[in-house]
Automatic annotation (TrEMBL):
Keywords: Periplasm, Signal. PANTHER family: PERIPLASMIC CHAPERONE SPY (PTHR38102:SF1). CDD domains: CpxP_like. It is found in: Periplasm. Belongs to the CpxP/Spy family. Residues 1-21 form the signal peptide. This is P pilus assembly/Cpx signaling pathway, periplasmic inhibitor/zinc-resistance associated protein. Its main location: periplasm. It comes from the Bacteria. One of its GO terms (cellular component) is periplasmic space. Coiled coil: none annotated. Gene3D superfamilies: 1.20.120.1490.
C-alpha cells in the first residue's frame, strides 16, 4: 500500500509539473523569425499574444489552484472518491488551457500566408524528427 501511495504521489507530481510546463509554454515558442513577417502581421501576432496572455492567465491560476487542492487532498486522509473528483476538476482546467493554446495557434495560423504556413510545417517536421531521435536510446 505504501508503494502505491508513493507511486501515485510521484505520478501526481509529474502530471502537475507537465501541466504547468505545458501551460507556461507560450505560442511565441514558435520560431516565426524566418517567415519574413510583414509589419502588419507582426502587429496582429502581438495582439494575439497579448489577448492570449490575458485570457489564459485565469485558467492557469485555476489549474494551479486545482493542482494544489489535489495535492492537499491526496496527502490527507480524504476518501478516494473525493481525491478522484478533485482530479477530474483539475483535468477540466487542463483541458481548457490546452484548448486556449490550440485556439491561439489557430489565430496565429490565420495571420500567416500559405507559404509561411508551409515553412512552419517544415519546422514542425524537423522538430518532430529531432525530438524523436533524442527519445531513442
Amino acid at each position: 500500500m505504501c508503494n502505491f501511495k508513493l507511486l501515485l504521489l510521484v505520478t501526481l507530481s509529474w502530471c502537475s509539473s507537465f501541466a504547468l510546463a505545458f501551460a507556461q509554454t507560450p505560442p511565441e515558442s514558435l520560431d516565426l523569425r524566418g517567415l519574413n513577417l510583414t509589419p502588419d502581421q507582426r502587429s496582429q501576432l502581438q495582439d494575439i499574444r497579448r489577448e492570449d496572455q490575458q485570457s489564459a492567465a485565469p485558467i492557469r491560476d485555476g489549474l494551479n489552484t486545482q493542482l494544489n487542492q489535489l495535492r492537499d487532498l491526496y496527502t490527507s486522509d480524504a476518501p478516494d472518491e473525493q481525491v478522484r473528483s478533485q482530479y477530474d476538476r483539475m483535468q477540466v482546467y487542463r483541458q481548457r488551457l490546452e484548448r486556449a493554446r490550440f485556439d491561439n495557434l489557430m489565430h496565429i495560423r490565420g495571420v500567416l500566408t500559405l507559404e509561411q504556413r508551409a515553412q512552419l510545417r517544415s519546422q514542425f517536421g524537423q522538430r518532430r524528427r529531432t525530438n524523436f531521435s533524442f527519445a531513442r536510446p
